[in-house]
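User: Second chain of the day. Same drill as before.
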Amino acid sequence: MSTDSKFLEQIEAGLDRAQVSDGATLIVAFSGGPDSSALLAGLAHIGNRRDFDLIAVHVNHQIRLESSDRDQITAQTIAESLDVEFVNHTIDVPTIAAAGKVSIESAARKARYGALAKVAKQRGAYGVVTGHTRDDQAETVLLHAIRGAGLKGISGMKFGAILKIPDSNVELNVLRPMLDTPRSDTLEYCDQMGITPAIDSSNSSREYTRNQLRLDVLPLLNKISAGASNALARLTKNAADDLEIVEWIVDRQLGDAQTTTDCYSRSAIAELPTSLATRMLMKAYEIQVGHSQNLERTHVQDMLRHLSGRSGTSIELPNDTVFYIDKDSFGFRSGAEDNCPHPAPLTGISLPLPGTTDLRDGFKINTEIVARPEALDSGDPLITFATPDLITQSLTLRNRRNGDRFQPLGMSPLVKLQDFFVGAGVPERWRDRVPIVESSDKGIIWIAGYRLAEWAKVQPSHGKVARLEISGPRTRS
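Assistant: Same format as last time:
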């Protein structure tokens, strides 16, 4: 079998593993270097038979002005020689990096994938094809290993995967059909096709960690043990197989623990092995944020400690995310996300009885005198039945104040409201927003959603009762 036939077979096998169908529109991340040039030439050859619509997208990062513009011209020339549509995006990465106080590498990657995602969306593409080779896979494994990665990091890159760029809306299907192809094959294929690719001078700089691995570490490993690069590639496959089993278990356990869309049962995770609980927390975080970048072991350990601690607490995590603990559950919220079932903070509001009072955020409180129902427990914590004597009193709706005390229904002593909230498992972040109905004469009547006061309960002699109800956009979730 000729080298070019073998090369094309490897690409086609990679496309099949990435589940690319005939007739697909594919965006090729095209730097003009040896790997992406061989990839584009191979796809152009295969595409004639499989009816691919190819668009070569080149991103001029403006990092080294003279060579950046020269590489753009080289890339365009190669694409045109292959009769492939060429699109260029010029982005001032150094300025972006300086403004965002991030590394050139990080800014370039984010800008590059942002540009690729934009074209992919405009053209309705199936995905973005990159020129990552088996050598890149080996470098990636080493890079993750020296950073202490687990199975996920060691399993390396996938032939097809959804890529989400942190701190952006970028999400795209990335296809890597050359992960089983050595870099030497791309150089040879370019030579056979008469393609003179652009050579990125930065690839020879030891300023970047990945380049040090490529230039120094991998050659030494291959010298110590012939075929070390191939062995690292096999390691990724073995790790990926093991990871598939682990993720199946994690997904199943997390599904069993899930109580609502973004909430999980504490008891369902409490008795599990620590390693499994750890992975479940990481997966739940990833579901919330969309990725797990910047989440470190110390963050996960902190979450584990809070899981066995008191309710009502929370901790801040990377990517503007908060992990919170409730009495029976835990979950995550991001940014300005508000899962509190109570209205925004209230200043003292006079309540008519009977009457309906509009609160903030679409909430209302309705008060009325009704015939005594057969069951005083409605089953809805936001509805309570109280003594009809409230009709003679001046009622106010407010939030908690320092020093608040009341006598909960069924209890004899007065308790501090703070102690009641802790005992009832009211999340700390909700406590300042819990509506409290108060009588000017006798004090707290009802902690809405939680407990009526003992003095305000319905007596056996009452034929009519006061009915109080809070309703709003989040009270029936």
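The chain has three domains: 3-233, 261-334, 349-471.

User: Great, on to the next one.
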